[in-house]
Amino acid sequence: MKLPAVITLAMATMTSASLCNEDSDFVVDFFDTFDNDELAEDWVITEGNELGQLRDTWGTSDNVVVEDGKLELWSRREESHGYSFTSAALTTKDNRSWRPPFKACVKAQLPGSGVDGQMDGIWPAHWLMPQNQSCWPDLGEIDIMEQIDGQQEIYGTYHWNPNSTACSNHHDQAQSFVDVSDALNTYHEYGVHVEANYIDFYVDNKKVGRVDSSTVGDKLETHPQLDPTTAWYMILNTAVSNKTVWGEPVTDNTAFPVVHLVDYVKVLTKRR
């Protein structure tokens, strides 16, 4: 079964219940509500340029602010270390990671003005990467949420290596997207439920896509590689792209500064 290419949900029908509420099967393992006006030690800020997290920008701790119970990830048009922009990314790598089965949720308000062109090149994301990945996309990549150019379409994607015996930097993927008409001015919860043999993608506790062994990739028409032993860590970031990688490149009309707001990050693991 191929993951649907387009899924549209009417926001009025979405429930406010969380995918990451405790129940008889899952218990909270990690919950950061950003209430302490400083970043918890579980997070590591990306300083410098890490291409996958920041694209064509310089990451700096100055753009990571914890205030009034929110995490603020800022992007700015300013020169730094040979780049024309600065932005923000942080991860739990080497501090916190989770093996299936688990659920991961990020409640966020995404950057955007609703005016065409003002968010060109802006690429916020919440995603999971393997703790012990030797090269991309070895062991996979789970994109809980990606948004490009301030649009209302929210993407959930799983990337995998179509050649499990070689580190070729080639990848296949399965992707869905959902229209979230007020993503730019309202907080929504973006989540995944990761099991040994499938990954479900959610927006506001509504399932919008699934990847399993029967899924056919959008690029190379291979089937996903799913490793039940992989430990996944969390990344939150806003990339800035001045090249046509996906969506539009940043332009003179892109309205900096840009802020990506996170209300909480929550991970549940299976009760033992």
- The CA-CA distance between the termini, in Å, is 32 Å
Secondary-structure element series: EEHEEEEEEEEEEEEEE
Rg: 18 Å
Q: What is the structural class?
A: mainly beta
Largest sheet: 8 strands, antiparallel
Overall spatial form:
globular
List the helices and strands and how they pair.
Elements lengths: L25 E7 L11 E2 L5 H4 L3 E2 L4 E4 L2 E6 L10 E6 L10 E8 L12 E9 L10 E6 L6 E8 L11 E8 L8 E7 L3 E6 L2 E7 L19 E9 L17 E13 L2
Parallel strand pairs: 3-6
Antiparallel strand pairs: 1-16, 2-6, 4-5, 5-16, 6-15, 7-12, 7-16, 8-9, 8-15, 9-10, 10-11, 12-13, 13-14
Structure in words:
The chain is mostly beta strands and about 270 residues long. The protein has one helix and 16 strands. The strands form two sheets. Strands 1, 4, 5, 7, 12, 13, 14 and 16 form an eight-stranded antiparallel beta sheet that branches. Strands 2, 3, 6, 8, 9, 10, 11 and 15 form an eight-stranded mixed beta sheet that branches. The longest helix has 4 residues, at about 50-55. It is globular and about 45 Å long.
Brief descriptors of the model:
eight-stranded antiparallel beta sheet; 272 residues; 16 strands; disordered N terminus; mainly beta; 1 helix; eight-stranded mixed beta sheet
